[in-house]
Structure formats: C-alpha cells, structure tokens
Automatic annotation (TrEMBL):
InterPro entries: Homeodomain-like_sf (IPR009057), HTH-type_Tx_Regulator (IPR050624), HTH_TetR (IPR001647), Tet_transcr_reg_TetR-rel_C_sf (IPR036271)
Keyword DNA-binding attached: yes
Entry keyword DNA-binding: yes
Organism from which the protein derives: Paenibacillus chibensis
Keyword terms: DNA-binding
Gene3D superfamilies tied to this protein: Homeodomain-like, Tetracycline Repressor, domain 2
Official protein name in the record: TetR/AcrR family transcriptional regulator
DNA-binding stretch(es), residue numbering of this chain: 24-43
PANTHER family in the cross-refs: ACREF/ENVCD OPERON REPRESSOR-RELATED, ACREF_ENVCD OPERON REPRESSOR-RELATED
Length: 194
C-alpha cells in the first residue's frame, strides 16, 4: 500500500471518529509513520485531504449500489428495490469507516465545507435517484406498480433508505435491523403496488 493510500485510510477513520476539527494532520501523519510535511506531497491542505476521502467514500457507495442496475433484466422491480436496501446494508457492513464518514458529514458538515459537501451529496443523490426511477418504471411496465406519478414514489423510497441508514447505526443486532428493513420495505411496496 502506498503512503498516499495509507494517508487516505488513516484520514477516513480519524475524520469519521473525531470529526474534522478534532483531527490534526500531525495525527494522521503519525498513524501512517511519516512526518506531517509529507502529507503536502499528496494533498494541498487538510481540506483537500478531507474532501478527497469524502468524495471517494461517496463514489464507493454509488458504485456498490449501481452494480444492481445491471441485474435489472434478471429481477423484477420488487426484488430489485429490495436488493437496493440489502445492498446499502451490505455496504455499511463492509465499509463501516466510509459509511460513518459520509453519514457524519452529510448530517453535520463543517460550516465552511457545507456547500462543497452538499454538492458532492447532490451528485451522489442524482445517481441513486436515477437507479430507483429505473426500477419503479420497470415495475410500471411489468404491471406490479400501477401507473402513477413517479417522483412521489422515488422520494418515498429514498426516505426509506435514509431512515434505514440511521437505523443501521442505532442497532447492532443484525436480526433487529433486518426486521426493520423488511417491515419498511413491505410497507413501502404495499403502498406503491396497490
């Protein structure tokens, strides 16, 4: 692993755990085993390092969820939408540090980075929205979802995702989380399919 990659990994974990203001570049450097000035060989400043790891974490999540769109033809809309929620859960389990970082700063961004973080989030949200739209439109084509306005269904599903994201960090029990996921999805599906 390169020094640059080690710096990003240490930064991701420390920014997620301690916050932007609570993490010093010297602390990141120390964890990697380099002197603080070595960071400037790769990153302009603390903000540049932070935004690099934040954007990479968002991109990693998007890539993970987008892999589902290739399965659209194989699965029906209901199963595809359920798999989006399952895929989100898998991402949180496999990429905990990235998940903590993104959730922390989307909800509580440092004031001077608020606009930059919001823009990164909106880019990510646009990609996710298009995937959800595809699956809901597929459901309308299949006849499993009655023809209706698309936007309210997409917004409702994204809210289910957001709620489940918070639930993941509240509950350590896999069984409790999966129960909540299944109940939330079943309620959503019963509403959109009737």
């Amino acid at each position: 692993m390169t020094t640059k990659q080690k710096l990003k990994e240490a930064a991701m974990r420390l920014f997620g755990e301690k916050g932007y203001d609570g993490t010093a570049l010297s602390e990141i450097a120390k964890e990697v085993g380099v002197k603080t000035p070595a960071i400037y060989a790769f990153y302009e400043n603390k903000e540049d390092l932070f935004m690099t790891v934040f954007r990479e974490a968002m991109d990693s999540y998007n890539t993970y969820v987008q892999e589902l769109s290739g399965e659209k033809k194989k699965l029906g809309a209901k199963e595809s939408l359920r798999r989006v929620l399952a895929r989100q859960y898998e991402f949180y389990q496999r990429h905990r540090e990235e998940s903590v970082l993104v959730l922390r700063y989307v909800v509580f961004p440092p004031v001077f980075l608020k606009e930059t973080i919001e823009q990164a989030f909106l880019n990510s949200d646009g990609l996710l929205t298009s995937i959800i739209e595809q699956f809901i439109l597929q459901g309308m084509e299949e006849g499993s979802i009655p023809d209706q306005s698309l936007q309210p269904l997409v917004d409702a599903f994204l809210n289910v995702m957001d709620g489940l994201a918070m639930q993941y960090f509240y509950y350590t029990s896999k069984e409790v989380y999966e129960r909540k996921l299944n109940h939330a999805f079943d309620t959503f599906w019963n509403g959109v399919s009737s």
